[in-house]
Amino acid sequence: MEKKNRLVSLLNLLPLAIRNFLELSTHYLGLLKVILISCVIGVLSWVLTPSAVALTQIKLSNISYHECPQELAQGAVTSGTTMAANCFIVTGKAQNGTNKTVYDADIFGRIYDANNDSVMQNRTRLGSIDEIPPGDSDFELRISVPANQPLPLKLKQFKAAGFGAQVRK
Questions:
Q1: What are the tens digits of pLDDT across the range 138-162?
Q2: CB atoms within 10 A of CB 59
Q3: DSSP characters for 110-156?
């Protein structure tokens, strides 16, 4: 008899349990939908995000200089003044170790005269290279040096950094 009473009690609780289960399942179903949608958005934003346009370091080597041809050197003055200046072309090799072309690479370096005085005080950015294809390539850069600075010039700490996509137009 006792077993029968337990069974009847369980059968009486069954509709209540079913109702509670359905309420919980609809509540958690909404939560599961939110989690699923968030995961899908996260994966899509990860897959469809464009590659970052970050700076790419470029090694510069074989740095040397020579005087500008006469047509480039005529009327050369230093920036901000009308002092006479000597024109030089700095040349070297740029090594792009990536498999992509690097654009708008800024050239940085220090230039000293024969007395170890800075030729371009407070300035380490010397110019830029528009495009550097993968591998090694030649570059050249025109600089103006005040005529009163003694030669030869010393070129030190040259490096470049550019972008994986065109930045300036």
A1: 999 999 888 899 999 999 999 999 9
A2: 14
A3: EEE-TTS-BSSTT--EEEEEEEE-SEEEEEEEEEEEETTSPSPPEEE
